Amino acid sequence: MSEVATTEKGALGWAGAGAWVRQRARNLAPFATLVLLVVFFTTTTDSFLNLVNLRNILAQVATLSVVATGVTFVLLCGEIDLSIASVAMMTGVVASMLFGTAHFPDALALLVGLAAATILGALNGLSTTRVGLPSFVATLATMQIASGLAQNFTRGNIVYTIPPLLKYLGGAYIGTKDPFRIPVVILTGIAVLGAGHVVLRYTRFGRTIYMTGSNREAARLSGINTKNIVTACLAICAASAGAAGMLNTGRLGSAQSYGLDDMLLDGVSAVVLGGTSLFGGEGGIKNTIMGLLIFGVLNNGLNQLQLDIFMRMWVRGVILLAALIINIYALRMRNAPTKA
């Protein structure tokens, strides 16, 4: 083989490798971020890779994973839901008060609470698709409604009569000995993520979500009822927020109309950190899982370092901002035209 042919072959090989990296940049960037965080906290703390601590990381993001599943559906449509935290708090209050005050069976109380959250999500969808409000504005109004209902129901008090089923889902363990004593909430989070992945990856509904998010007008012209798709995704997001709110109620052993203000920012951050686009059509549950792991490792690692609580928030914010910027540049790299 001539020297020129060898050089050309090498150049083609490097070009192919570069194209492969560009196409997978959105997935590689979050993975690289996770690896860097794990390496950093492993070298700077004594017990980060301890099996009990790794289990704690999963437990810490288990409730968030339920929220993030619904957020993934909404972001894939190119929409946003600001009512997540308020709907979560309202649902926990409704389920607990139906059980403790109205004496509903615990399973029925949970179902009614979940139905209430889903109805608010459907209201978001109808306001967005039928009335024409931006989802930002529609869900901002629903946030006020849900928060107001939760405060009106509780009158500012904490509700301690929690359905036993919620206590089990939020606080029970399977197994008796560490590190194989697994919180049920972890299994619940895995189940919700798995169901979301199956729907998005293997169903016609999932494919229409991606088409709607990628190019809504083209999807509409191809026969997809994009209004129904967006409404369904907002309803799913609200239902997942409600489920997460009830899980959090079971974990804490009480329901209240405040205390989940970080859920919105954390849920959206986790999904976007994993590589799902804010503009719709790109990403999925596998990306969300990666983002949840980044989020969990970061929070746990900062706790392991025993940073001052007043420093922890801004340090976490700086790291999250850096990771998001890396993801944006990874997307630009992927979409950059290939040189001839």
Query: What separation lies between the terminal Cα atoms?
Result: 24 Å
Radius of gyration: 22 Å
- Count the E strands: 2
Sheet having the most strands: 2 strands, antiparallel
Beta content = under 5%
Helix content: over 70%
The number of helical elements comes to 14
Q: H/E element string?
A: HHHHHHHEEHHHHHHH
Summarize the structure in words:
A two-stranded antiparallel ribbon has the order 1-2. The mean pLDDT is 87. 76% of the residues lie in helices and 1% in strands. Helix 3 packs parallel to helix 8, helix 3 crosses helix 12 and helix 12 packs across helix 13. The chain contains 14 helices and 2 strands, in the order H-H-H-H-H-H-H-E-E-H-H-H-H-H-H-H. The protein has 340 residues and is mainly alpha-helical. Strand 1 and strand 2 form a beta hairpin. It has a domain of 221 residues.
